[in-house]
Design a protein that fits this description.
The chain is mostly helical and 135 residues long. The protein has a domain of 93 residues. It has 7 helices and no strands.
Length: 135
């Protein structure tokens, strides 16, 4: 009898995960990051790219990574005003396109830098990145 109980108990544990698989109460909705989270993530990712391409220090675009992040948080905050781009109103795909364009800008120079900058401003505008809450 003592040997049967542990085996039966262990076998019953195998069925517990199966019971929850078809549950209608499971919420697997992907939650969009908040505006402040996106702005912080954006600044961090762009400045990581600056570090890889140009680095920080005297004579560089930014003396430190903190300087870079503060600047890009400010830029993103201006590009995505709260009135147009409140929490959960940042389109993930368009945000990624914007980020990729700004990262390309971070590594460009000369005429390419001007072109990349113009493209980044377009891709990162509130009209492209922010969504209408009614949609």
């Amino acid at each position: 009898m003592k040997a049967v109980f542990p085996v039966a108990f262990s076998a019953s544990l195998l069925f517990i995960p199966v019971l929850g698989c078809n549950s209608d109460s499971a919420d697997d909705t992907v939650v969009e990051a908040s505006r402040s989270e996106r702005i912080s993530e954006f600044a961090d990712d762009v400045c990581d790219q600056y570090e890889k391409c140009e680095g920080f220090g005297e004579g560089k675009a930014y003396a430190t990574e903190d300087d870079c992040e503060r600047d890009y948080e400010s830029k993103a905050g201006s590009l995505w005003p709260e009135a147009q781009c409140n929490d959960r109103q940042i389109d993930s795909n368009n945000y990624q396109a914007c980020l990729a364009q700004v990262q390309a800008y971070a590594c460009s120079s000369g005429a390419a830098s001007i072109a990349e900058g113009i493209q980044a401003l377009d891709k990162c505008s509130a009209a492209n990145v922010c969504t209408d809450p009614a949609d």
